[in-house]
Design a protein that fits this description.
This protein is α/β, with parallel strands linked by helices and 256 residues long. The chain has one domain: NAD(P)-binding Rossmann-like Domain (Rossmann fold, 3-Layer(aba) Sandwich). It is 45% helix and 14% strand. The chain has helices spanning 17-28, 42-53, 68-82, 105-133, 155-175, 196-200, 202-209, 220-231, and strands spanning 8-11, 32-37, 58-62, 87-90, 137-142, 180-187, 242-245. The protein has a seven-stranded parallel β-sheet, sandwiched between helices. Helix 1 runs parallel beside helix 2 and helix 4 runs parallel beside helix 5. The protein is globular, with a radius of gyration of 18 Å.
């Protein structure tokens, strides 16, 4: 029996990068997966293909988590297609580089809306369904090492991830009596489209690799395996924690 057989997962930002790897891993472990995406459906179709080819089930939903109507529609899609959902992975995220004095209100609002507000209200909609049907559940937020570690010129990103850390800790206490666990996974430097500029800048990339004890960037699959564990019964007694996936970066990081 697969670890997540009979379970239903919603994964945001599942059309690319870490979200795509998470959706595919959960599907490979038996979960039915609601693949959330924004924009063109190509990436989501690529995510769904291996799940269905291996005999699994999935549903693509175009939903912008910064829009309240889309949030409700995303949760409804899981219940309408599969009759329930008991795993939520808040993966959708973004960053905008800017010195603190140059951050605009529009950029601040955009980053916070995706990384924190979107996760907050999607989790709320998801938990309401669990509460009303008296079902336990798993919530996994894809945070960042920057929920704890300074990242100059990315103050909005750090604020949003720090907020996500405290949201996770608070909800672990509040939702524990409902049988709902809440944890964060905090990736370090991962090979994803968001790091395209870094991967193309060899001197900058090599300088970063020198700060990572394991000597390499992480892969989306490195993150996905941990998420699958936290979504499973193997992690039934784990809540309120952040799990760092960074090759040791936080233990050896320095700006210069």
């Amino acid at each position: 029996m697969q670890r997540l057989e009979g379970r239903v997962a919603i994964v945001t930002g599942a059309g690319t990068g870490i979200g795509q790897a998470i959706a595919d891993r959960l599907g490979s472990e038996g979960a039915k997966v609601v693949v959330d995406y924004v924009g063109k459906p190509d990436g989501a179709e690529e995510t769904l293909r291996p799940i269905e080819q291996s005999g699994g089930e999935g549903e693509m939903v175009s939903a912008d988590i910064t829009r309240d109507d889309d949030v409700r529609r995303l949760v409804d899609a899981a219940w309408n297609r599969f009759g329930a959902a008991d795993i939520l992975v808040n993966n959708a995220g973004m960053e905008i580089e800017s010195g603190f004095c140059d951050v605009t209100e529009a950029d601040y609002d955009r980053v916070m809306s995706v990384n924190l507000r979107g996760a907050f209200f999607l989790t709320q909609a998801f938990v309401r369904r669990l509460r009303d049907t008296k079902k336990p559940g798993r919530i996994v937020n894809i945070s960042s090492v920057h929920e704890d570690m300074a990242f100059p010129n990315f103050s909005t990103y750090c604020c949003s991830k720090g907020g996500l850390r405290m949201l996770m800790r608070d909800l672990a206490v509040e939702l524990g009596p409902l049988g709902i666990t809440v944890n964060n996974v905090a990736p370090g430097a991962i090979q994803t489209p968001i790091n395209k500029a870094l991967l193309a800048d060899k001197p900058k990339l090599n300088a970063l690799l020198a700060k990572i004890p394991l000597g390499r960037l992480g892969t989306p699959e490195d993150v996905a395996g941990l998420v699958a564990f936290l979504a499973s019964e193997d992690a039934a007694y784990i809540t309120g924690a952040t799990f760092v996936v960074d090759g040791g970066l936080m233990r050896d990081y320095h700006e210069q």
